[in-house]
């Protein structure tokens, strides 16, 4: 079986699997991130009802947002859970924190559903009161360059988050392999294309392509004729042309 991160020429029926969406807008292309100090995670357990979850996601159209809400819904049966859509938007983050605090939550584990762990990390940490103001603040409508950076969100909660992104976890690859299997009818006569939005930073995009190619090794056991992984980088015209 052939696994190629960029070449899309195939000789068998093609299954196109939308892989990973981007955590950035066309105008939100942050510079190469500085090293981030480790952040301790709050690990909720069933004996601590005062611990809640705040799930952050990029946000998109109504169908996309609904899919995220449905994926998060089972967590609500285990403990207080809130969803904050947007690119570390202070309004949605504040509303989510208020929602949890109003339900008696004292400790919040913030789960960031972004491809790259560095996407909006500095901004999120700042807004949650965990770090200094970022060099560049991304607003809901694009770059905040030249505008006043808002104050951190006021709250009395014990908050923690993480530094990893979806690209850093093998479970992401297992999900893609499983979706490919579900769509397949005759693996031996089919090629699989995993197509991701991509990242603006060339190094980060390269890590994403390498991770997808590594995950695609799991398709070998399913007997597909070929497998491909690629990124569109559609928000960056020059990078897209090179891709």
- Low-pLDDT sequence parts: 1-11, 21-44, 142-146
CATH architectural name of the largest domain? 3-Layer(aba) Sandwich
Q: Looking at the structure, what is the overall shape?
A: globular
Query: How many domains in all?
Result: 2
What class, by secondary structure content? alpha/beta
Main sheet summary: 4 strands, parallel
How many strand units? Answer: 10
Percent range for helical residues? 25-40%
Count of separate DSSP helical elements:
6
Kindly report the average pLDDT value: 79
CATH topology of the largest domain: Rossmann fold
Round the Cα radius of gyration to an integer and report it.
Answer: 19 Å
- Top CATH class of the largest domain: Alpha Beta
Q: Topology as H/E string? A: EEEHEHEHEEEHEHEH
Topology:
Elements: E1 2-4, E2 14-18, E3 51-57, H1 62-72, E4 81-85, H2 90-102, E5 107-113, H3 121-127, E6 138-139, E7 142-143, E8 158-160, H4 170-183, E9 191-196, H5 202-215, E10 226-231, H6 237-242
Parallel strand pairs: 1-10, 2-9, 3-4, 3-5, 5-8, 9-10
Antiparallel strand pairs: 6-7
Helix pairs in contact: 4-5
Core attributes:
globular, alpha/beta, 4-stranded parallel beta sheet, 27% helix, 243 residues, single chain, disordered N terminus, Rossmann fold
Task: Write up what this structure looks like.
Helix 4 (170-183) packs across helix 5 (202-215). The protein starts with a strand and ends with a helix. Residues 1-11, 21-44 and 142-146 have low confidence and may be disordered. The protein has 243 residues and is an alpha/beta fold. 27% of the residues lie in helices and 19% in strands. It has two domains: 2-23 and 169-242, no CATH class; 51-162, Rossmann fold (3-Layer(aba) Sandwich), CATH 3.40.50.
